[in-house]
Amino acid sequence: MINIDRLLKNLKDIGEIGKGLDGKGISRLAFSKEYYDALRKLDNLARSKGFDTKIDKIGNLFITYNPNNKGKFIMIGSHLDTVKNGGLYDGALGIFSGFEILETLKDKKRHLNHGIILACFNAEEGSEMGGTFGSRSICGNNIISDEFKEKLAFYNLTLDDVKSCEMNLSNVVAFLEIHIEQGGTLENEKYDVGIVDGIVGITRYNIMINGTANHAGTTPMNLRDDPIRKLPNVINKLYKEAKKFDQPFVMTIGNIIIKPGMYNVIPGSVEVLTEVRDLEQSNIEEYYDEIKKFVKADEKLEIYKNIEKPSVKLDENIIKIMIKTAKENDYNFKVMSSGAGHDAKEISKKIPTAMIFIPSIRGVSHSPEEYSKPEDIELGVNLFYDCVVEIDRSI
Amino acid sequence: MINIDRLLKNLKDIGEIGKGLDGKGISRLAFSKEYYDALRKLDNLARSKGFDTKIDKIGNLFITYNPNNKGKFIMIGSHLDTVKNGGLYDGALGIFSGFEILETLKDKKRHLNHGIILACFNAEEGSEMGGTFGSRSICGNNIISDEFKEKLAFYNLTLDDVKSCEMNLSNVVAFLEIHIEQGGTLENEKYDVGIVDGIVGITRYNIMINGTANHAGTTPMNLRDDPIRKLPNVINKLYKEAKKFDQPFVMTIGNIIIKPGMYNVIPGSVEVLTEVRDLEQSNIEEYYDEIKKFVKADEKLEIYKNIEKPSVKLDENIIKIMIKTAKENDYNFKVMSSGAGHDAKEISKKIPTAMIFIPSIRGVSHSPEEYSKPEDIELGVNLFYDCVVEIDRSI
Predict the structure, then answer these.
(1) Domain boundaries B201-309, corresponding CATH code
(2) pLDDT, tens only, B2-60
(3) Would the annotation count B114 as a binding residue?
(4) Does domain A4-200+311-394 have CATH number 3.10.20.810?
(5) CA of A222, closest CA in chain B: separation in Å?
(6) Which ipTM value was assigned to this complex?
């Protein structure tokens, strides 16, 4: 059994850094002074407990236990950076759960076939280089461009710095990440824990409704070419088609941009920003095919793609081990997909990967209100521990 | 008969100033160098023709003919400033039509009972002090506040400067403004000219749809409190109720503001900016009463007033004279209201006032594409001339 009090104390200690900087929450932004203060604090803690540590040039920290292994490793971890005015749990829970696993293994003096590497990633939440920069860099998954180099320079980094962080992952047999759910499904459906089988794909299209801007006072209603008149139909169609798909399919209208956007001008254009996420890429395509047909039928409408990040399915073998372990220990668990991206998504391109979700109260995240119950964390981290042990034994 | 070629030459000469500054159009913004260049050019022209002129401290120019009258005046005029990248006609057509009236009266050596003052107003289009600042100031209609004084300071003006511009208008028997329609009604319904009987009131309400912002990836569709779902009903209701009123009633949704307005966040709120204009204030109230009932029936909706500028009815007696004059000269005219505010709206609070509208091609204004046909202008200004003569004779 892991020690939940020790875990929560470590988590809360680190949460003091950057607290109250931008509101009630924690600001431990990637590459910030607060980030590096937290990183050094954790590094000192790990070394004081006798673990090997290494900090790379982009601010990732690796803490290793059982260095005298047969040259094979299991990697666990998450990210240490937060959003601005964020919560205690997003990212950091994965790191301190991982640290608790190391401490428990060490306390028990348990025999391990593999070395256990706890990876603490920088810049998952976002930097000039986009999200999951730390995990992307150890995988060598960055897309190198002049723009990318310019963005690195913003943090006094060179391409060589980033390349020096690439790791030989061929001797890592598995990556496991524990993370808060950031949604309300587990709490709502009364599950103890989630076993994540995939990370949804994200596709974004913008729909443009064209009209003619004109004077709102002098243009009679019957002489208007007002794009807002068509907006209700567009919105209703977007929701209606979304209803045809089941969870984890989600469709969000995140913004509607109206130009010129003044009281006294009939708008010239309305742009509807849409996003769809699902684990099945074919569902996303089917949805937007239907929307494209709808758009094509009206010459005033246009649609164009903004982003397409394909979904990722996590490793079947590891998920099987996790499900077996959860069943043996009578867990009330849900196999589910993640609606948000995670370091695990990048790592899964190189190493067999899976994730565990801890229930998020009211599904809140990226907020000082973020909360997960100690009893849920304890259950989840104990499962995590058992899974690490089982993977170590069986792979 | 007025001289249309002379009128258009003067109009186009002034239009060279500030041309191409911000695009293809004319930028002669209130208080700008271009504005004062134009003002001095017109002042020089007027003095070269033997008219009396006076420029006040806020940049209004007054050109007077027949100073040897019996102490009674007729005022004509419009504004000399333009919007950014505006057209040739908005405001300036009223000034050069007025100037053409003065020149024609002088050429004809016509006996007049009244002095004719051509007022060229500054800052109708807007400045820190809001629209119609020039005409508002001669009427003493400014609302004096600390904020107002601060805004004046932005133009190196003091309250004393503004007060020095107030005119004794008790000896002015009428104000007449000729202006482009800025709408498509006259062209569309094939009228030569419009006789304006009132200026619509403008009322603006914002409708707020409240929801709960949340993660667009991790919040299942059935657990969302998404305010955009209600937006189609709100928009449809706004248009449906607007249908119950006839011209000149117009309702415009000028903007929809969604917060936080990101692809990956379910919005927390949607704000719909609405504006209604009509000549009958009671129609505006009836419309919004219905909308308020609709809002009240849904606890997620709120409504609040932003602006209420009441409508103004122009002077019946002067309108009668204008209609009589138009009929006698076989004009194909429409008695109509103005959907836009004008200097005439401010002046009408102090002096019997009316307006003449010249057709705007395609209703375009505040744009380099603004255009009125020479033949329409000639017809309109000839009616304007006849009306001035008739008012001089009969009032």
Answers:
(1) 3.30.70.360
(2) 999 999 999 999 999 999 998 899 999 999 999 999 999 999 999 999 999 999 999 99
(3) no
(4) no
(5) 9
(6) 0.80
